[in-house]
């Protein structure tokens, strides 16, 4: 059992696969005394916390113990106003206007498995034996507010999940103003913060900077997790790198506004916090009500960022993603967006599908523009009825023609939006987020439907499920193309308007739960102008995401590398598009674009009917190769070897779980004259086994491949790339 409680010492010892997390009750306060490499249970775990008397500026809650100050005590769920002057984990406003509460130990239980989070996505267990959960209840006797802190420790993962439930056992409504999911105090500040930032078409670039006294923080106030910052932050030792050193990852399973901050205090300790964005948030918690905060997944790695990522990958691929498609190989698709934009008809679509069949492609995705009278992005969102001008015999007929051509049929929707020019908006102008008497600010000439409303969700469920039930749809691309403004709901009373952004996300999750449960055969892909909502929350409902609207091979190296810090390759959509690239105007070879896209969930996003014969041959061989390799790419362990953020060359590889097979990708962006000789050292192989190169037949020892490396003189010219497939000679 990985959770131990020593009652006499008041110590909880949580052991994940390779890490320990220790909580000690000190004067009833839940103190965080250790998080790091695994410690032996049974050895002396007392005295881990040094306490000294500080000045009068660090007040003492217990008069007899001057070494106790909440301003210096590392705490599990720190409160505001009772002498801890650092950032609190939660804040409340009480009926009388006061803001003071104090949470102290009330009770605890240790349960097998992992309880679900009501209404929210979360990592799960399939068998109770996979994990244990500590439920630690802290309570404030004056108000009746209680916090149930939940910690799950897994036998097979180096991860600990945390979440918080606030319960109002009092008689009066409590207004929650801040409810974070985790607060972890480290005894020093010798850390860098690493996070993923960017913009539309430039998502999840890696940022790393040294912590210093004060705050280092990121977050979103856009109503979704956002292109700009991902709900993830890692603290790592300055000497830690891809392969070695201590890393602590914090990933929030949520798709809306969030905050992630590291605060270095006056004594050089670090408080790491992550959770719902407190800005413009409030929640009225009535008597007997419970507020469930989202889950944070904490990963400790002593093997650098690579070790952290592989834990997230395995956990998220197998215990966050769900459904029939979780463990299945994903189909190779062609999407018509960059091929036709809004300008297509059924015959054009069928011709692309027929060309796809010749090339071995398995799924056709009809993107935006098939409904209402949508000839550009200025109308029809909300009217999910096929446009008979483009599809004279209807959507079902088109889907059947595509299926007859030998491909599965996929369809694009943007359900969360409404165009002012739509029948839906004309009949229900109050169904969008808005504030009475104010402008309704448009983005892409569209408004955001108010998913906090049940009637709106029911409308969407009916509209979408009618189509899913009557048309042979195997795949749905669920898009969302703007952020929230004028956040307000026509149905929420005044004091609940600050709840709307979070209620929207809860409503979205409820709708997704209903739809994915009703149509388990459909492979759902999430999208938000590419990767504007690439987060663990969405992955719980949809096992893959369109990584970015930027399909340029060189740009994609950075985007996919950054995304892989947290997210498994099986969740990343990656397509070959036409050149010059539509986002950046760059021309790169088809082979380079193919190799980059083959490092994800592979597909094409261009007009297949326009290929030359030579291009058709290249594409056929890409498709054939990917069919053979996709199991390795989508379910193998990923090792990042050379970073596009550090140089001209990128390399990564995938290794099968039994280490009998590996696939190396190597990319060089620009040719260099008289360049240094390049050699790449592989990782993750068995040093004692021999591996044969599938193309060529050379045999190398795993030790040689990892320690001496492979000379890479195989690429030539700008935007050049190659891949090498290796198999254990005993198996090949
Ligand atoms: C944004 C998506 O990211 C694109 O792939 C495409 O589906 C467009 N929306 C369609 O409007």
TrEMBL record:
Substrate binds at residues 200, 367-368, 444, 477-481, 527, 549. Residues 650-726 form the Glycosyl hydrolase family 36 C-terminal domain. One of its GO terms (molecular function) is alpha-galactosidase activity. Residues 29-285 form the Glycosyl hydrolase family 36 N-terminal domain. It catalyses: Hydrolysis of terminal, non-reducing alpha-D-galactose residues in alpha-D-galactosides, including galactose oligosaccharides, galactomannans and galactolipids. Its EC number is 3.2.1.22. One of its GO terms (biological process) is carbohydrate catabolic process. This is Alpha-galactosidase.
